[in-house]
Each structure stands twice: as structure tokens, then as C-alpha cells.
Amino acid sequence: MMIQANGIDINYEEEGEGPWLVFSHSLACHLGMWYEQAVALRDRYRVLRYDTRGHGKTSAPPGPYSLELLADDLRGLIDARGVERMHFVGISLGGMIGQVFALRYPERLASLVLCDTTSYYPPEARPAWEERIRTVREKGMEAMVEPTLARWFTPAFRAQRPDVMRRIAAMIRATPVEGYIGCCHAIPRIDTRARLREISCPTLVIVGEEDPGTPVAMARALHEAIPGSRLAVIPQASHLCNLEQTSVFNRLLGDFLAEVGT
């Protein structure tokens, strides 16, 4: 389904009944990466998955983008759908959007789940993102497929689940170049550290134990900065832990949501 909000067309899918539960995906993916979670939770929640600006079927205007812009896209979407209060789950880039949204619009959150994400990248990390931008401009998204899969999944899982590799590779390959680049400008500039103590809704931080891009130390920093938050480390999982250890992830998420209620 498509809706116009914050000056762009945003693609989303909605299913189930109950309290609102919104999912935000990683860079170079789309709402399909949350399919297993939607199936597991749609009997208890009204699940809304959406494509971030520059991804999937959502508009991909030239960037650069900012995390504040992406958070306002989310605000526009939920306003248009009549969502007054929601549980929010974001992974990687989605988790960064979740942090910024929580600080801009705290009254809209019933709970917050931040997965394989960070509150800060040091300045020395920016050249790596600039190199990604150059690579994509010169060679297109195909050049990002293999290195991205290598970062996102453990070698054992890659060998065991070629079906998942094909599925995620297709998402990476199909990501609009302008959308990818727009978000690559936003991601390395995140720095919510000074304000994380302001987040007051129930918060769960989840991370794959073998995540090289946003490692356990970054998740622990989030957990320690957000009052009353919980930290869950998933063994034998890398960056997209919701896909690599789906049953464990779904149990952690389902138990947390059930406990915090509506």
C-alpha cells in the first residue's frame, strides 16, 4: 500500500489486530526483511512494516538525507494511518531512526526495541562510508552485494541458508542508488549519546554476538545510557539477527512486548 507523507510516497504493509507494532528495516533492505516477525506477531498486534525513504517502493529523491528527516517520514506515516501510540522495532539504520524518533516524539512510543545499531560513530569511521558512496556511484549496487552479506551473516549461516542469501541479495541489488547514498550520508553522523537518558519508554536492546558492524560494545553503550533498558545478546548471529536466529529473536521480542503491554 502507498501513502503520501512528509513530501514523499511511502510504501507500507499492515496486517493483524491489536496494539500498533511498527518495524523499520536496515540500510539496503526493505519491509520484507521483517516477514517472519510479522507472521509471528500479527495475531496479537496490528503490524505495520514500511519502506524507508530511498528503499523498496518508497520514493528515492536525491539526498543527502538526515536521521531527523527519516524520523519525520515515520511521523508522517503514522499520522496518516491514525497511529497515536506504537511499539517500535528498528534494526541497524531502523534502530537509529528509532532513537531519533524517541527523542523528537516520545509521546508516540509505548516501547522501543533497538537491534544491531549504535548511538555514535567516531569521525574516523566516515571515510568508510564515503568509500561506499563512491563505489555505488561508480559500480552500482551489485558491488555491495557480497561484502554486505559477509558483514550481515556468519559464515556458517551463509553456507547453510543459500535461500536467505538469495533473498537478501535481491533486496540489496534492488535498492535505488540515490536512496542508498542518501542514507549513507545520514548514518555516520548519528550521535544521540548526550540525550539517551531522556528515553523513558520501556526499551530492549538486541544484538548478534558476532556482529562486526555494530558490535556488542555499541549495544551495551546504548543499554547503559537508556534508563531501565534491557540488553539481549543473541549467540551465533551477526548483524541481521532477526533472520539468522529467527526463533530466538521472536521469543525475545514477543516476551518483551507481552510484558510491557499496550
Question: What does the model show?
Answer:
- With 262 residues, this protein is an alpha/beta fold.
- The protein has a single domain, classed as Alpha/Beta hydrolase fold, catalytic domain (Rossmann fold).
- It has eleven helices and eight strands.
- It has helices at 35-41, 67-80, 93-104, 126-139, 142-152, 155-160, 162-174, 177-186, 216-225, 241-244, 246-260; strands at residues 2-5, 8-15, 20-24, 46-50, 86-91, 109-115, 203-208, 230-234.
- An eight-stranded mixed beta sheet has the order 1-2-4-3-5-6-7-8, sandwiched between helices.
- Strand 5, helix 3 and strand 6 (109-115) form a beta-alpha-beta unit.
- The two termini are 25 Å apart.
- The mean pLDDT is 98.
Features:
44% helix, 18% strand, alpha/beta, eight-stranded mixed sheet, Rossmann fold, 262 residues, globular
